[in-house]
Specification:
The protein has 19 helices and no strands. By secondary structure, the chain is an all-alpha fold. Its main location: membrane.
Length: 439
């Protein structure tokens, strides 16, 4: 008797091989749009905290609050995903999100010209750009799987992550130089322009959009949101990866809101020195993105995910123990960025490809929203916890605690099927859970 899984594999074998990604104009435009946007993001990630630290003399708690507010909209990701799930034209939603982020960021250089930049404005910009980012990400997942064949998920994610890694390589150095030469608020304008460029490139994508939902049929938004969360928690791969990602994000964001503060205030590094150190260290991300597919083939997708889950948070300890002459302090920041960048690429590329493989098409936006609500929702909580803990026990001790806590995230994976997974081809086609699948 022929099983469904066997039939699915036979059907996939009979399909013609998709064209190489580098000859696919649709993917190349998406790749270019993401690359331009990522480069701008690296500049803002450096400039926004430096506005708070150097221009507005913010405390550790205030800097952590800025990081928390940027990620706080992800707590509503469950609702974003359910809403996006019922909307046709995912590309239009992504373009809208890019335009909103560009407009919000452009208010900072304008306020700088009027000598009116404040912490309140920084907080508002963080919330608006964070909300638009959640909208973009909720639409991106179903858009990506319509654009890229299943057999090319790992390759596509590797190329996209390579661009992200390259942005970490050059972005901080460019950002540091721009901040030093033009001031941080003006440097943010670069990110606003990058979002405009991304929107223009996405607008030129000749992608066939999915049909609009038929009338008002189907359950209400809250019911769809619950369905996405229920499926995520029922699925053994998604449940374990969610626990791991959430733990990693909580502890790494305990450190993320404090690293630039610590490097500037405690280590005494200038904006250009921080930018150069982060840029040099970002070669680890680039190397990790390039090698992730090879490593996953050598040791298996599951083991690569587990290795990345430890290598990503652990190097924060190097920053915490940094001291001595300038070259040693800058070198510790560089080494930590290098190792963490390699780890996060190994973790993200393989885990994103695995998730794309196991989530049914009908549930992608809802699962993406549910996953983002819990996973990314831990980021603002971690940032706030980091600021409060730093005020209580000091920044250096908080960074050490974040490194240790982040490494514990791998414990979520050990009892799951993930560590034993050799390749994505060994998985059957995703089958929706009838208990939670709804139109």
């Amino acid at each position: 008797m022929t099983t469904t899984a066997t039939t699915d594999r036979a059907d996939r074998a009979d399909r013609p091989a998709p064209p190489p990604l580098l000859r696919d104009r649709r993917f190349l435009r998406l790749w270019t749009a993401q690359s331009v946007s990522q480069l701008g993001d690296r500049i803002s990630e450096l400039a926004l905290p430096l506005i708070a630290v150097t221009a507005l003399h913010a405390t550790a708690v205030q800097v952590s609050l800025l990081t928390a507010l940027a990620w706080a909209p992800n707590l509503l990701g469950l609702l974003f995903g359910a809403w996006v799930d019922q909307r046709p034209g995912k590309r239009r939603l992504m373009i809208t999100a890019d335009l909103v982020r560009a407009a919000a960021l452009a208010t900072l250089p304008l306020a700088h010209l009027l000598d009116a930049v404040s912490l309140g404005q920084l907080y508002a910009v963080a919330v608006v750009t964070g909300s638009a980012g959640v909208l973009f990400n909720s639409a991106y997942s179903p858009f990506f799987v319509r654009l890229v064949p299943r057999s090319q998920y790992v390759e596509a994610n590797s190329r996209l992550s390579t661009s992200r890694s390259a942005s970490y390589l050059v972005g901080p150095a460019i950002g540091g130089a721009l901040v030093q030469a033009l001031t941080a608020p003006v440097a943010v304008l670069t990110d606003a322009v990058s979002f405009l460029a991304s929107a223009a490139l996405l607008g030129r994508l000749p992608v066939t959009e999915e049909p609009a939902p038929a009338g008002d049929a189907g359950p209400p938004m809250l019911a769809r949101a619950r369905a996405g969360l229920a499926f995520t928690l029922r699925h053994p791969v998604l449940r374990a990866s969610l626990g791991c990602c959430t733990t990693v994000n909580f502890f790494t964001f305990m450190a993320a809101g404090l690293t630039l503060f610590f490097a500037s205030r405690t280590l005494g590094l200038s904006a250009s020195a921080i930018g150069l150190a982060l840029g040099a260290g970002a070669t680890g991300s680039l190397l990790g993105a390039v090698l992730a597919p090879r490593i996953s083939r050598a040791i298996g997708v599951g083991r690569a995910i587990a290795a990345g889950a430890v290598l990503f948070p652990a190097p924060t300890a190097l920053v915490a123990v940094a001291g001595g002459p300038l070259w040693a302090r800058a070198g510790a920041l560089t080494a930590a960025e290098f190792l963490a960048g390699a780890g996060v690429m190994l973790f993200d590329i393989n885990l994103n490809s695995l998730q794309a493989r196991v989530i049914p098409d009908a549930l992608r936006s809802r699962v993406s929203g549910a996953f983002g609500t819990v996973n990314y929702g831990a980021r603002p909580l971690g940032a706030l916890a980091g600021g409060l803990l730093a005020a209580a026990i000091g920044t250096r001790a908080t960074l050490l605690a974040a490194a240790l806590g982040g490494c514990l995230a791998v414990l979520w994976l050990l009892p799951s099927p993930i560590p034993g997974l050799r390749s994505l081809d060994s998985l059957d086609e995703p089958a929706p859970d009838p208990a939670v699948t709804a139109p």
